[in-house]
Amino acid sequence: MAVDVEAPGLTPVHRELSRAYVEWLTPQDRQPFRPHVTLMNKATVEEAKAALAELGAGWSAFDSHSPALLLWRYLGGPWESVRRFPFTGRAG
Question: What is the top-level taxon of the source organism (predicted)?
Fold first, then answer.
């Protein structure tokens, strides 16, 4: 279960990174960009329905911002934090 994220400024960042690292992208990485926050992963249908019922009643959109882009490496199960890239506000 996921929540869509409206972040127009994120699309150009994603496009630039995709172009720079095209030779290393997996088929999953090459899918259309749909920013989202994953609330549940690998849940059963019953678990997802129960969570949606619980969250749905009180869920509302909210504004937020991100101070940086985080790079993670997938290790076949766990993830490893690799680097933090702060947003400086300067065009690169």
Answer: Bacteria
Question: Using an 8 Å Cβ cutoff, are 52 and 1 in contact?
Answer: yes
> Does 50 reside within a domain?
yes
The Cα 75–Cα 4 span in angstroms is 26
Is 17 a domain residue?
yes
What's the number of domains the chain is made of?
A: 1
Token pair recorded at residue 26: 């997996």
Instruction: Provide the 8-state DSSP code for 31.
Output: S
Which domain covers residue 43, as residue numbers? 2-67
* Cα–Cα distance for residue pair 1/34, rounded to 1 Å: 14
* Whole-model pTM over 0.70: no
